[in-house]
């Protein structure tokens, strides 16, 4: 039985989810993955904060303690924001450690560079959790891209916006009222700017673009419009015509190989693959050359969906190692 | 550049699709997969039938010719029906050859045994194409099962049935009229029994059951009902209530670990994950413990969707071989 040491960076919702799943499944993973996973350290900002859900001796606020773990195999990066997440991820890779991240702000900007660095150091980067939460769009796309070309991606990538638009239509409520409800239900942050402005969906779209096309459009060329200007009257008028507002992140390959991307509200009819995606769900529709249109739907956020796809990233790395070598 | 030899068993729609994709992408695969794939032989029933789409010297009706190919790496099994598909697949495995199959009739019955045999001989079996055509439900489930438990699977697994139900509702037509249309459009076979009786969906459900739960229910315990008894009046009455008929294949784990499975028409409302799946699409909704409900939607049949996921099975085998070994 191989004992492996992992560390968690950031101990908010997602970090705690990883801690929970790895401990809950530790015995099972010995059998199914063939490894005994030990969480060796957890990096936090404030070590003095009382924590009931992890032993105090695992907690540190010093990244040097993480790098000092002997034979550290994987860092689960669940920090919010670009820095120090990028710096720590790069350092981990340079120390021969695999990185699995949920950080869309960091990865949308530095993902291609981190993957390049990982190649150079012979380690892997998992980033399923950066985009669409529990929906395995990254692995699905990595897989189909081996044979198919993806030429158009349309996604509902922000559950908060989709929840608000759904409630405005189904309950006939105004934007502000639904936002307040969403905040009290935990579906929207106290500061909802990133969600309702479209910036969150934009970052996730850039991650999908880098994967599908190996590049991103120039960020300043992408129109990013949120849902804040949509009125109840517009929603009612659309409903009367059998249409629904969806907040759609959209990137496609133009005829000359250029990328055309936009993020904003769209009116879609029943034939559209995103028409039926309701509530806090996320969805991604991929137009491909051989398969046609493939749509994935599921929870776009949440402690366990997000944390579980990060642990799956790790399991996937192990599976690649232990695969039969006969082919 | 590693040159690899593969063979295709059966040269109907799917077999021809594989031949087309491998040749169309051969140069690209040299770069992306690192192999030069040569189709060494194609097994058919009738060698005298004129074929414009493959050189005559590749064609054989003798399976011994397939086994005699030196260093044969992969057999793409695209035969219809249980035999000789099972016999050939087993022989290929015993000869150290990987098998990739699209054959739901064979695999629903012999899949677990073939996978056991493959383990024993150190080769792999790919079967993405057996279920839901171009929708990558097998690989998605293999991946999420490493961390999540799947406890309930509901699928629209037969595109013909779904097309007929969709047209009956949206066009107000009778079953027999839609079936005739479907046959003239190529969406239904001349003998539509397997599709409209539910038998086709049943076989695919058994494949999903074996993957998710490691076992199947006793086949004779599963109620399998087709769509042939549904009348226009019933469809209209459902529509008036905001409900839709869907032909649903359903398997779940009962409280005592027993499997409960059924295949048949169900009335579903707008909140159901399969409500919005229209036309010839297939869909599978997986209820999991951490992620929640994940739904995959896409084309359930067709030459290129089916053939491309078989080539992806092969690419996946290669990716497992060539993965970094640092973890």
UniProtKB/TrEMBL annotation, chains A, B:
The keyword Amino-acid biosynthesis applies. It catalyses: L-homoserine + NADP(+) = L-aspartate 4-semialdehyde + NADPH + H(+). The keyword Membrane does not apply. Its EC number is 1.1.1.3. L-homoserine binds at residue 189. The active site is at residue 204. Keywords: Amino-acid biosynthesis, Methionine biosynthesis, NADP, Oxidoreductase, Sodium, Threonine biosynthesis. InterPro entries: Asp/hSer_DH_NAD-bd (IPR005106), HDH_cat (IPR001342), HDH_CS (IPR019811), HDH_short (IPR022697), NAD(P)-bd_dom_sf (IPR036291). NADP(+) binds at residues 10-15. PROSITE patterns: HOMOSER_DHGENASE. NADPH binds at residue 104. Coiled coil: none annotated. Pathway: Amino-acid biosynthesis; L-threonine biosynthesis; L-threonine from L-aspartate: step 3/5; Amino-acid biosynthesis; L-methionine biosynthesis via de novo pathway; L-homoserine from L-aspartate: step 3/3. Residues 136-313 form the Homoserine dehydrogenase catalytic domain. GO terms for molecular function: homoserine dehydrogenase activity; NADP binding. GO terms for biological process: methionine biosynthetic process; threonine biosynthetic process. This is Homoserine dehydrogenase. It comes from Viridibacillus arenosi FSL R5-213.
